[in-house]
## 1
Amino acid sequence: MTTTDTPLTKVLGAKTAKALEDHLDLHTAGDLIYHFPRRYDQRGEHTDLRSLQVDEQVTVLAQVQGMSVKPMRQRRGNMLEVTIGDGSGATLTCTFFNQAWRERELRKGVWGLFAGKVTEFRGKRQLNGPAYQLLSADASKDDAAAEIEEFAGALIPVYPAAQAVPTWVIAKCVRTLLDTFEPPEDPMPAEIRAKRNLVGIGTALREIHRPSSDPSLYSAKHRLKWDEAFAVQLTLVQRRAKAAAAPGTARPRADAGLLVKFDAGLPYELTEGQRDVGEEIAADLARPHPMHRLLQGEVGSGKTLVSVRAMLQVVDAGGQAALLAPTEVLATQHFRGISAQLGALGRAGELDGDPEGTQLTLVTGSLGAAARRAALAKVADGTAGIVVGTHALLYEGVDFKDLGLVVVDEQHRFGVEQRDALRAKAARPPHVLVMTATPIPRTVAMTVYGDLETSVLSQLPRGRSPIASHVVPALEKPAYLDRAWVRIKEEVKAGHQAYVVCPRIGEDEETPPKDDEPSRRPPLAVTEVLPLLRDEYLKGLRIAALHGRMPPEEKDAVMRSFAAGDLDVLVATTVIEVGVDVPNSTVMLILDADRFGVSQLHQLRGRVGRGSAPGICLLHTEAVEGSAARERLDAVASTTDGFKLSEIDLEQRREGDVLGASQSGKHSHLRLLSLLRDEKLIKEARAEASDLIGDDPDLTRYPALAASVAALVDEDRAEYLEKG
């Protein structure tokens, strides 16, 4: 019998097993049995050739309708053109060069699977030299029976494949495997299977590959989705329970202290959301267990103010707080902004400082030796109650006297190890607050950040101005781009400032075209655009560049000049995406906006309209109307609701990336579960996981379930989930 641990060499032979290993990273019977079909075809159904897109890699089920052999014009030899159709009235041409012998097997009326890249020639869509598998009468008796069973009216699995291992080869391997496969012990507790009407694991694994009917396929998918959702939720509930029980240091709010003075000195009222979230965080900090909280907030909702109040509560309780930012620009911006907010409270020991206050220190990689020594001394002896820094905070030699709170800004910019390294600098596990201005759909928050308490800031502070966004279709309406440059000049003339954002820094960057973008020009770059603006489009304005390759002191000088109003226009990359706060900036033109993601565009436009004047964001593109890229930009222009946009963004990404597959470099283990479409199922799995862990925290009564969770959510991914 074959089990999930059996090497594929013992099931399929060395040659086939090596092909699966080399091209699809499948090593064991378990790897192959969990390599699920990505769709199912049925002869004459579900394979509408009219829906195929040029440059798309496809596998189609179709029938040979005719053929012709023509001499080639440019070189010697013949070209065989085979016309195939799927019964919908649409046809596709398969082209073979100097392979006239294929006439013998590609006979009219024969059905088969054809795989290749869709191209277009003289208005006709075609596949050049496609791989194919025919339902052939010439096959051996056993093979013919298997093919007939596979094709004759049944649902045909189409697998994620490689050029060297097409889908029908995978299907044949799965057939061979299923002949001897012994399903594992069902890890799902029987009471949950009965309550949720879930089929057994053996039935699910067979039906997902060889469905006997549509209802059977639905039941198989439903069960396997449950396995995925349940494994992730069990992991998160376990980790939340452990975190709640871990010993920490309570940092209760003081009746009188820095926080009370700070609040009294605020020139504006907190929003209702800021007050409510502040109370949640204050209560967490007062408990003798580490806080693990995610703070979501729209761009400009006041997350930094909420974090400053939390840091002051910790300082009042005798501890230190560290704010970790992803870039020097953002760290410096935070340092200046918090210094301005604290005023005398952040300058204890200085002539104009409050003697009962604290000190604020900045730690970045570009500090000179003397400044670094001074900063680290303040961190080590506790003089600096609030420490703002970049990755430099993580280095050896940065020692805290009593680290009580870690605030991570734009948490998605940091790797697991980096966040963990900062937490390890505390004698006892510190409280952790992670912040993001990238709105997260509810199911993603539940699935990725499920071990964190979540707070949401949805209100904008009073006085913040609306942002209007417009698409600038450069190819269809070139006058719109001319008008965009005029609009920037008008804003500058009115005393405001502008951003021009580019996808690249300069020509020396390697930006190979994507497979689906063979003919697109390279994205516009800062170094290319800057001279054009100075000499032509924005001539006479004060313009400077800002990007990640500039020396830190030069970046800082440019940002200071822009913030002081000494520059009119900043030509930048996404280095300004988060945290840059210049209230006088009112207009942003994003060049080649279709090269950015939805959430990135939403973040970028949050840099304008931060003062009393309205903001304008112009989305330049050469994407044609009706294309996916253009629809994405139209969606961004249509709403400033970040949560709506986050769902659009999620729809357009591989959902597995959300679970850290791209960070860990491993496969995603969300093969079937959709974080958008399966919200109800995820909530149900969360509820069952909470009940089960409440009764049996270590799953000691369910060893098969514990092993299944470990296989689906390995330790690296569990660590990723834990740290958010």
## 2
Amino acid sequence: MGASTDFLRNFSPFNRMEAEALAFLAEHAVLAFHPRGADILTPEMGVPRHFYIVQRGKVQARQTGAAVVTEYASLSLGPGECFPIGAISARRPSTNAYTAAEDSFCYQISADEFLQLMQMSPVFHLFCTQYIASLLTQSRQQLQTTFAQRAAEQQTMTTPLGQLVKKAPVFVTPETSTRSALEQMDLQRLGCMVVVDDERHPVGVLTQSDLLPRVILAGFDLSRPIGELMTANPHQLAATASAYDAALEMATHGVRHLLVVDTENRLKGVVSERDLFALQRISLRQIRAGIENAADIAALQRASRDIRQLALNLIAQGIGAEQLTQFISALNDALTRRIIGLALEEHDLVGIDFGWIAFGSEGRHEQTLSTDQDNGIIWRSPERQDGEPIRRRLIEFAKTVNHNLAACGFPLCKGNIMASNPELCLTPAEWKSRFGAWIREPDPQALLNASIFFDFRVLYGNEQLGDQLRSWLNKTVKGNSAFLRMMAVNALQVMPPLGRIRDFVLEDDGCIDLKKSGARLFVDVARILALRTGVDSSSTVQRLRQASVKMGVSAEEVAAIIDGFHFIQLLRLRAQHLETEHDAPGDNRIDPDTLNELDRRILKEAFRQARKLQLRLKLDYQL
């Protein structure tokens, strides 16, 4: 018992396990020998009778039926690693074969003792429930290894900003004369000057791009303090934030410099776009500048392709799906806004109060590399004025925007869910009437409409119009349990494609549609939970996080569900190549037999998390 305890204390999660639980494990663990080539556990053995912890040697977990075993197609387990967590927890046969790759010793406890240990130890229980998160980390590492040569040529986007800061920061105080600050910028060859208070907390910034409009053209007196000239409340991130966090911040706000601060909010340094993307073929500055300076649609077409290329570079570096989809959405938002800006130069809409609405995946900030258009307009008609002429002007404007979006790779919606459709260019009262009709009479078409249109946000124009509509919608739906129940029935029409005998239930072409049978499962339930609990966000992940707090669901359970959603999103992104047409028929389909063993395991676990989420919905509405 002493030897086993000493061994276990060298590995996670056993080194953090409660003393009583560790003693229980050490007391019941039996050490067994497995010669090289011996099968320890296979699917044919049925429901696992034991939980194993590798003590010495190496155990190979592989997809059964694989013709060739390679490092990428298999998973090696060494000392301290354990198996089969998913199968023994669910009391089902293992979907992988575990073979001794060399003479090996494994501790084993019975299935009943494993379940008892789960109940005794919160630490062990947390480890098992967060299993998918640990697998996701391994998958990202594996993907990075596959792209090792390519990643070595590029700036790694997971690097903490603190490590990117190479020089001590140069700064001035608000009282410093503008001339003195500019002389330092010139001497040090700086792109910006940071202004700090007496405790070195950043209070402002002045960049080179500010000089022409604020100093030269404005005839600013250089003897006056820089505090009168600077941009207050500069964008900043903690030193522990990653390079892709900085990239997302820059893309979202259109800035080229970010201040890096320590734990006490004191200036540590400045990170620029050049620091982040110096080693990448396509830089954020190039894309952002290309969008902002685009004089025509041809220039925006080039920017659209650059967005896809940069996203694929980030996929190759192992960036997580949530950050990737936010990154893509932020740049696509900038692209759409510029398209709208160009259209406004052709259409005189001065004085018209309107908002351009994004629906569907764009409304949820969850765009992948392949998506069509889903948009509309909300506008306010002046009192005692005929609004129809305004509507006609807005529709003509929308036709231009829709056409130009299509030219930039976002196909026209086959279902005509576009702002140029007169039925989707509505006043707030008309939108409320439309939504209200679907809620009062939730027939199949109304439920389908709700699943598309209730995921919205204002992308350009008066955001308050969208906020007010969201507030009204939440109040209206929250008290209508019959409508929510019908939405729940609709959400349960598609089940996770998990087989009872085989791993997955495949469609006729041998594939799984990761959008229809994957991401949608999470999206539909999250929408219902958000409407039921009054969550304002349109993002699936934020809906799950915020609704779970109101419903009292544990953070660990929600984290596992979100990890499952993120992995399916990541698989969709990895399947969409640069040459793929936007919204091509097969761009969300995947043959699970083409996945390596690790990714198959995660995909199965992701579908189990979707099934768990649906089960909660089923119990809540007694379906």
## 3
Amino acid sequence: MTSRTDDIRLGADIGGTFTDIALDVRGTMFSTKVLTNYSAPEQAILDGIAIVIRDAGISPAEIGIIIHGTTLATNALIERRGAKTALVTTEGFRDVIEMRTENRFEQYDLNLQLPTPLIPREDRFTVKGRIGAEGQELQPLDEAALEEIAERIAAGGFGSVAIGFIHAYANLDHERRARRILARKLSIPISISAEVSPQMREFERFNTVCANAYVRPQMADYLARLQTRLKDMGADCPVFMIHSGGGLISVETASEFPVRLVESGPAGGAIFAADIARRFGLEKVVSYDMGGTTAKICLIEDYAPRTARTFEVARTYRFSKGSGMPISIPVIEMIEIGAGGGSIAWVDAMGRIQTGPESAGSEPGPACYGRGGRRPAITDADLVLGKLDPDNFAGGAIRLDTSASEQAILLDVGERLSLNAMSTAFGICEVVDENMANAARVHAVENGKNISDNLMIAFGGAAPLHAARLCEKLGIDQCIVPRGAGVGSAIGFLKAPFGYEALASKLTRLSRFKPGEVNTLLAELKNSAEGFVRTGASGKIVCEITAFMRYAGQGWEIPVPLADEPFGDDAVAKLKELFEENYQRFFGRAIEGLDGLEIEIVTWSVKATDVRPAVTRHELTTGKKTSEPTTTREVFDPVSGAPRSYGIVERDTLCTGDRVAGPAVIVERETSTVVTTSFDAVVQSDGAILLIRKGSQA
């Protein structure tokens, strides 16, 4: 019997339309895309594994490790398909998740629409008992009332329970006791906020524990089913999950804290882009990940994606912070919009073309898939414009129907605007590209950056089709389309470190800073974070310490990186100096001249990761040898506004240094790269394609 080896690794990414599989066999990559199976998501993984192990000539038993990311938790939150969940909270705070905060993202909109709370009011239960902001018990927990609540939950047909008490981040004793009391009468999962998100600000913390409880039964059932079916097919190897912060955790941890998986797929894409940036020594990069359902933009500086402690899902207003459901967990920071290949095109009441956020997904899919879809998607527009080969989509696994795309585009959009199919398809793609350009500009401005200063890295099945046009709109002169771009997130999973970030909120002013207490707290956080990492890593672990600090009275904090060493007697002076340096970097200058203005620490973070091997460095080449296409295809050209003959080049026929002059389309199994008239394409030493704007100084 063949035994598994650790140098054979498999990444599996379940997206809204496609499930991507990447298999690394001792440095050789095999990959495939299969349509996502909504009723049994694990089936698509099994189908994909069967394809890549056949191509690689290995058995399932030889796979050493499987790393998995999924949008299932995200979709369950957005589509409200989670378990019936009860919230047990402190008396007087029943409506926190509905009242939200005082922030209004649209100041003058009298018809403001906010996401409906995950848990309706009748399913929220309150109990007496109070912990103070310093962690002291102000009022004993009413255990008799909890016994009665347990009986009501047991009789109510609930599938999960969330417990969120005021100031539980400072002292979790009441939440733990409440869980023990409820568990004596309930056989359903119980999540407590002090373990899911031990951070201050009750709205975000309560909402996060509610989200965790809401998706926990579904995710636990799915992960258990996946492990069983993998073993049945002979893949009896460890399975790890990639979490929203970009590290790997065990399946057991993921089953208990599934809210950490909400942005797992996009996190893999950001790691993939960061690895490319490190390979070429690129310090300023914007990653552009466009799949079948969404498009994601992420800034990467010094070879690392930007991170945050909170993010939002299900925004009711596309680019407006505050209009979504806040999730308070460590996450790779990016902006995400409903603009994927399956996003539906439509006409609004003012006669404007719009796209998304609704997606055709894999069932029924765009009209061209021939699976029952009747509404036009972005993939239909790309097909009509000639960007896609109907006979060679997804390696020929899916035959595309051009006439079905034309009919859908005309029926839903073109006839309403008195446009022919080609003009309508161009309008749809222009709207999509402009929406993504706006999203990229907003994301850069929010982070104090100029988007045009970055090199773009484009991946995902649809991104290479749109990347050159997006660069034209953003003023970006260079774009890399890596090898394996179509399954970039799945490859990113294989690059991810075993990592976990432990957080604790403890409001401390520097005037009251006690080094001994803080050293004890950080030691506990390090033990917790390293414990999660040790479940999958046996080598060296490094820790990154961050203090989130602010001037007293401010509403939000800035991250201040610290050395991984105990605090001594000079801690206050060092912390003050580091805070002012970082404050000046964020806002231009520190606040001076106000007597008595205190500095305070709100939250501590310890991020533990295992040390990854160094990557092989490559130099970007602009190429000398021009490769002449042997075939051509009519593709709509946005510059001339009419179809034009584009050269068609198979990516596998190109060698390092080969230069393809635009306009052209470079085709491969999982995607196609459109080289517009403004760009040329050069093959790099690692197989990546570098798009270079003609006439630039690249």
## 4
Amino acid sequence: MKISLFPTLKNYKKEYFGKDLTAGIMIAAVSIPISMGYAEVSGLPAVFGLYGSVLPILFFALFSTSLQFIFGVDAAPAAIAGAALASLGIESGSADALRYIPVISLFVGLWLLLFYFLKAGKLVTFISTPVMGGFISGIALTIILMQIPKIMGGKSGSGELPELLKHLYETALHINWVSVGLGIGALAILIISKKVMPKFPMAVVIMALGMVSTLVFHVDHYGVALLSKVEPGLPKFIIPSVFHVDLKHAAGRGLMIAVVVMAETLLSENNFASKNGYKIDDNKEILACAAGNIISAFTGSCPVNGSISRTSMNEQFGGKTQAVSITAAISMVMVLLFAAGFIGYLPVPVLTAIVISALMNVVEWHLAVRLFKVSRKEFYIFVAACMAVLFLGTIYGVIIGIILSFVAVVIRETNPTRAFLGGIPGRDGFYDLDKNHYAHPIEHTMIYRFNANLFFANSKLFQEDIENNLKEDTKTVIVDAGTITSIDITAADTILMLKQNLEKKGIAFYITEHMQALNTQFRNLEMGGLIEEGCIRRTITAALLDSGLQKPFPLEGIPANLQESLEELREHAGKLPVHKHNTEKIEKLKKALWLHTLPAEEENTLEEFAWAFGEDTVNEIEKRVHRVIANLHHWPEIKEISEKGLSKQMQAWHNLGAIDEDEVLRRMELHLDELSANLEEDKNKQLIFQMIEKRRHHLEIELKQENPEIWEKLVESREHLERRLQKQNPEAAEKLHELEKKLLI
């Protein structure tokens, strides 16, 4: 397995240098307060956040294939590590914490190294976006609640939501208002600056102002806590104390953090890569994360992770390669060597405000809102993952999050979309009976489509769907298996049992439309008899013919002679000579068709619109009509509206089909009164009406000459539409008919 070092620096271009240098310095500056804050969250002294921003970043850049992603001390791993200390009763910043946290970092790196050799990157796809978003949001909210007491002049909280709220209440009884003023003021400035100046590194300015408040106004004399002083110097190498901690506990927490690091980093990296047009190697990214955490352990620091917030900043400043990470690491070395003395003047509430500000971006409010709008089921999964972290802790939150991801997959696979199919008079093919009002079941036949692979968890649903929908006159059951690519032994047994049950009732059973590979599975699962008995047919049509039916297949509620006539009309209408006998025959057939189908008022006749918008078709077409009318208001002279110009106004939906456009035009006529406010009443209304009718007439003539079959559909569609419009808006329809009589007589 070939591994190249610093892969993003190959073929480096000199024009990248300026942006990489600027982005690296800015990221280092912002990382100072954020990393120090997260180090304290993990249970280490703040300076270890700076240590975790030197070698771990370099070792990540050594292997990473991502052009932009920034590594370092981050929220989720710090929170899990801090929670691990709290569960053991280890005090933050104590000697025990200094021994325990590096061991967790070591195990995180070792687990990630194992994931690399197992090529486990694809496992991340099993953690859904709602679960990961809810989990990360829960962690961020937990840390925010842990940090708020420090703004109030107290110590950070620990535990889950009830304990955190209790600690908040107790801290509020001894609140330091100077500390609150500094913290709230800093937080307000940071929030406002993100909206007003999103690219400006306000956190660095706030940190500098905080130090000034100590040097000039001596806020520490008013009880405001300051960070511990940091001795200048680079991090020292240590050997993690693996023999002085509970290895089982440390390994377990390390596994949890490793899963979070792998999932969050890969998901985020792929998002940035996709957005910016490049590709990454998922497995090498796991190796890069492993290297970063192992070296973090040997510098005594906490687990490290990819940082979404710092990567976003890198993107804003135009960083092109991992040279940004190298610059950031070198800048941090300069800080540790020459500017460490200033850190001891930073007020704790100011640093806490910077951390909370960063964490507010981590809480995925936008995802929660989006899920609430588009998928309530996934929204509830998001909330469940978030609540699990808040009430049960990060460890159980990880477990519950992963379980929820698999539950979501199982629910989707065990309750797939299914449909019963039928035919439409005069048309080929088979259509969903629920979604096509003109579709009718084929006589004595059930055609069932199952849109998922068959396995132990959904095979009973498959069987029950068929058996519960049998009719007394059912003679044939046909399964459309076009989307079934695999079955397991449980499903195989279910199919054989179903066939036997149907045979006892004298019902023939067929499986059709599937790929050839499924037949191999049938034979391997000892179902080859189905093939030999002729139960496996290539198409639905072949199964229908085998069952004794003939084309055109008889439909329930449609007389056989009408079916035959419709088939003849469909095939030969375009070729029939135009004379009275044929015209009468066509009109008679159309009338018979309307008498034997479902009410036209409920039918979506628009071709492309009905396919695209489904149940919202009527609303969408009305929106289109109002948009065209609104555009007509902007024409300087109503006389300039030509048939061509009117048609051009309607092309927002790419190119409307003829039937689509005809319905849009007819519905426009119903809304002509809406133009009255801006146009001269009768004269202009009549002019627009004439233009619309001219366009409709042009469509009819054009289709009649070039495509008689579509012309027939247009004629049918117009008559159906008139009945629908009469039912939907009888008053407007009546006015329209009066206008027609006035202008067309």
